[in-house]
Every structure is written in C-alpha cells, then in structure tokens.
C-alpha cells in the first residue's frame, strides 16, 4: 500500500539532494513562498507589505546562517562546545558602539569612524575568544562549555550594570547605556541611500541620493516605503557577507588546517601524537569563530539602529545551536539549510500563525489560568495566541523537534555528509600518476 | 642497590643510544604501573619489549610519548631531555607511537587519517589554507602527500578502503591504518604497541619484512608483541618487564634461557 506513494517522494528527495545548490534554491523558494502565504492569510495583502514581511524574515535568516557557519567552525569541525555565542556577539557590537558612537551622543563613544569601529569590535570579540579558550582548552571539553556559558552571562551582566552604563576613562565619558537600549552609529547602507542619513528615516527619505532615488521610486511602484527598501538593500548586503562566510569556512574545512580540526574533534590525543600542537589550532579557531560572531551582531544591530543587553541571553546561543543541529553540524550546507528552516518554520511562523488564528477566529482575551483555558475551545485558543504563550509554545515546539531529530535523524535534516578535508580531490590520483 | 645498578647503566651509556630511559616511575592511585624502569635503545635496532599483561609496557609507551607525565625519572631522546614534553613535541622530534587499541579517527576517511600524519604541512597554517595566493603551494604539497598516502595504503593492502570512513574498518584493518599513519609522519624512532594483533598471517609476515627494511634504512623500533616466536626471531635485544619493573634484558638466546623470565610468564600470564 505504502510503496507506490513512497517512490515518488524518495525520487523527489534524491533529485533534490543531488546538487547542493539545487536543494538550497528549491528550499529557499519554498520557505519564502510559505512566508508569502502565511502573510496573505494573516491579512497582509498589499505587495509592499508582503515584501516587507519577506524582507524581515530573510534578514533574520541570513544572520542565523552566518552564526551557524561560525559555530560550525568551532563546534561542528573542531568539537569545541562554545555555549557563549551570545557573549561574543555582545562584545562585538558593544565594542563597536564604544569606539564609534559620536562624542556628542547621549551615551557617547570615542567618535571613531565605522571602518575602525567594526574591525575593532571583531578584533576584541576574537581576542576574548582566545582569552576564554586559553585556560579551558587544556581541560576537558565540558569545562569549555561551562566557562563559555558563564563568560557570556558575565558579559551581559557587566554591560547592563550601573558601573558600565556610563563611565569615564582618562577624561573621556563612555558608556553602554546599562539596561536601556543603546543608540548605535548610522548604518553604512543609510549613508548610501540618504543625503542626510543621520535624520530619522521619514525626514531623510525626502532627500535621497541618486541611488536611493532609483530604489525608492521602484519601491513606490509596489507600495514599499523607503524604509522597506533600505532594509532590503541591507539584507542583500548581508547576503554578500554570508556568502563570504561560507567561502571562508568551506575553504578552512577543505584544507590541511581543517583536517587537523577534524582530527581534534575525533580524538585529540591522536592528533597530538602525530605532532600537531592541538592547543594552538583550538585557540586559533576559537578566536576566529568568536570574531565572526562579533561581526554578525555588529551588522545585525547597525541595521536596527540600537541594541539592548537583554538580547544576549543564553536563549540566543541555544537558537544558533538548534539551527546548526537541524541541518547537521559539521557540514556547512547543513548549517545554511538548518538556519533557513529554523528561522522560517520555528522562529517566525508562530507569529504569523497567531495572527491567522486571531484574524479568523477572533478568540477572547487570554484567560487568567490554565484551568480556565481548558474550559472550552475559545479560551484555549485565546490562551495559545497570547503574546507570552507564543514564545513558550516556540520552546515546546523546539523541544519536540530536537527530540525527534535526535532519534530519527541524528546527523541532521540532510543526513550524514562528508566534506573532504583536503583542497585536492583525494580519490583522484590521475593527475599525479600522469606526472610521474 | 637499584641506584647502584642504574649508575652502572649510566656509565655504560656513554655510547650513542637514541633513547635513554632512566628510573621511570608512574602510579595510578594505589597501582604502581611503572616502577623504576631504565633502558637504552640503540639506533637502528628492533628492540622487543615483552612481559605478561599488566607488566607496564603500554604505560611505559605512554610515558615516553608524552601521553602521561612520569612521577619521576628522565627520558632522553636523540640527546634532548624530553621528560614531560607534550605528545606533539615528542612526535615532532621524530619519536612516534602507535596505540595498542587502535585509535582511528572514525568520522574521517582512511585517506584523511593517513594524510593528517605528515609533519610541517604548509596548509596547516590558517592563512595559507585560506588566502588565494598561498593556496596553490598548499595544493601542490597536497598532491604529493596524496600520492604518498595512496602508496602507503597500497603497501598495507587497505587502499580499497581509502575513501571509507575509518570507523567502518575491522579491528585488524585499524591496526594497519595505525601503522600507515605512524610511517607517514616519517619518524626516526617508532614505538609499536602490539601492532600485529588481529592482522592476518600473510600480511603479518609482510609487515615484519617491512620492519627489517625500515631498520636497514636506519629507523629504530621499540616493539611490544605477545607472540614469543615473532619476538625471538626478529628482535634484538629484548627487554622483559614484570610488575612494573625491568626483569631482564639481552639477546633472544639469553632471554629464552632466563629462569626469572620463564617464571614470570608461567606464574603471571593471563592470555587474552
Ligand atoms: N590510565 C590508567 N589508570 C589506572 N590504571 C592504569 C592506567 N593505565 C594502566 N593502568 C594499570 O597499570 C598497569 C600496567 O598496565 P599496562 O601498562 O597497560 O600493561 P601492559 O601494556 O604491559 O599490559 C595495569 O595494572 C593497569 O591496570
Ligand atoms: Mg599493553
């Protein structure tokens, strides 16, 4: 009975996984068609607003792709359990703010240009990566996990502390803004599109640059505001950097350096008994990955225009892990696909589904207690579609999916994949045989 | 008494031993696994290290190769005191070991396992493996290594498994992979911990022949093996350990006759 229905499905799967790029394109298109459909049913029908929704989801998806790739370098390839992803991200963006916020701002910085602030943030994040890894790297893997998790929380607590909110060094006043949201320097994309980028978007849009003018006019055709067009340009810019991340991580993986990383993950004593100074490799890769995480968060919050320490709770680290595990850690394409699936299906779709339920059923206000919620269908819907339960539901959903994956597909959605750790094709001897 | 002996050994060792171990000790909790062992290895020899199970042979290997730190004693290799060196520093000096229980890298292919081994690979530097200008040099070296790796795998008759994950190999094949990996490091001296366990007799003979070839090329071996015939026919000298101590040392003929050795084997042997 089940066989004839299974064959086309398996054939389709085989066709899809035949080429990575094909799989990626088909998956991306399907996921964003889904976003379209979901927006449509949640009452967002104008092309401009749908574009804005798709852009918003794509923005987060690309960020997660980059985070998953950075984590894949540390954890997927080298087996270093970094539970402090959020901490390194916080260091990156707050360092950038300290360096590049104008001296005249409410919470001032050093007023240095972004081309110093951004590399500065990345550098400090990777320095801390090396520093945190240094003592832990000699110990067992579990210690690194504990140290990084604790470190990440310390970073967050320091940033939100009274002392860090505003302080003076050598007569210069600086600060993190404490628990409040901290305004960030003007994004470079704004500079590209507006003559007067420091103004609020509504005012700045009145005087666009020639490039901005072209884009804004195009946006007007489909009813997309300049703000949406600006974000769209930013997302495209992020996409370019994500491709660079992919290139970098793949190149590392397919090299003798990556071979040592893999060996460390598999059995560190073997790697060192063959003469590899494993500590050096671990520190290098930890610093690099942490710097990349710092860069992602700089790019993320420059677009947003502000940042708060509350963003950098350990949940964020957990999300990045889920994204990577979903696709299959140790594989770059797995990390990319896992991130897309995670962001669209798990992170963003609950929001739409809640709207759809609210639109179509008009459930009552959420009941006071779970017992009231269980008294009928309407109160139950009301309960599940309240703002708080959406995030709780998201966690429950995540838990179920993780348990399912661990049991059914422990190697991730893509299954087991091998990416050869060499920059030549190992199975191919032809070349050398002809030479000799 | 023992101090006296080791001092006499010292006096003798004005010769050019490649590896010299003095009064090595290591205990784990209550168990003294290695209890004051001293010996010297001549360059270009195949020295046998035998003794009943639990005699401390593998622990001695772990101490020499840096996997464990000795409680006391000194290890001098090629004129350098390497006591307490990390495993990678011992290996880069040219002293490489194999593991008694094969430690393949399971999620890496057999070829990747073998290509990991060579020392001083250009592509092990991060910037060289990434930056376009440098990478062509890395690729050239990788092609050379790939050729050497294939040849080594052919010799050990595991080339048909080259692209297989090492975790899928049988016990005997894993031992061969270990040997292949050790040889790919191009060492001066090799510590082999029961490398023939689980290897079929035909290949066993071939490996022993290879051992002698390598010896003729100037390689030095310290060789732990259970099969007495193999040890007696191929190793000279032979060191016998028992309960963490060195029981006897000498040519195969003398060891064969030694009463203490016979007693240790008859009294303490637990065949696996
Ligand atoms: N890591 C360890 N922890 C505790 N005891 C050990 C350890 N390694 C070896 N031993 C003990 O040391 C003794 C010598 O073991 P080993 O060196 O493996 O002997 P052999 O290789 O000669 O059979 C044994 O009693 C063994 O149980
Ligand atoms: Mg042993």
Automatic annotation (TrEMBL), chain A:
Subcellular locations according to the entry: Cell membrane
Record-level Gene Ontology MF annotations: branched-chain amino acid transmembrane transporter activity
Keyword Cell membrane in record: yes
Pfam families linked: BPD_transp_2
One Gene Ontology CC term in the entry: plasma membrane
Keyword vocabulary terms for this entry: Cell membrane, Membrane, Transmembrane, Transmembrane helix
Membrane-spanning intervals of the chain: 21-44, 50-73, 80-100, 112-134, 141-159, 231-249, 285-302, 318-347, 390-407
Principal subcellular localization: membrane
Statement: the UniProt record of this protein carries the keyword Ribonucleoprotein: no
Coiled-coil region list: none
Topological relation to the membrane, as annotated: Multi-pass membrane protein
PANTHER family associated with the record: HIGH-AFFINITY BRANCHED-CHAIN AMINO ACID TRANSPORT PROTEIN BRAE (PTHR30482:SF10), HIGH-AFFINITY BRANCHED-CHAIN AMINO ACID TRANSPORT SYSTEM PERMEASE (PTHR30482)
Protein's name in the database: Branched-chain amino acid ABC transporter permease
Species of provenance: Halovenus carboxidivorans
Automatic annotation (TrEMBL), chain B:
UniProt GO cellular component terms: plasma membrane
UniProt KW keywords: Amino-acid transport, ATP-binding, Nucleotide-binding, Transport
GO process annotations (BP): amino acid transport
One Pfam family cited in the UniProt record for this chain: ABC_tran
UniProt-listed SUPFAM superfamilies: P-loop containing nucleoside triphosphate hydrolases
Residue ranges occupied by any ABC transporter domain in the UniProt entry: 19-268
GO-annotated molecular function: ATP binding; ATP hydrolysis activity
Lineage top rank: taxon: Archaea
PROSITE patterns documented for this protein: ABC_TRANSPORTER_1, ABC_TRANSPORTER_2
Stated role: Probable component of a branched-chain amino-acid transport system.
PANTHER family: CONSERVED COMPONENT OF ABC TRANSPORTER FOR NATURAL AMINO ACIDS (PTHR45772:SF9), CONSERVED COMPONENT OF ABC TRANSPORTER FOR NATURAL AMINO ACIDS-RELATED (PTHR45772)
Family indicated by similarity: Belongs to the ABC transporter superfamily.
Protein's name according to its UniProt entry: Probable branched-chain amino acid transport ATP-binding protein LivG
Upper taxonomic lineage: Archaea, Methanobacteriati, Methanobacteriota, Stenosarchaea group, Halobacteria
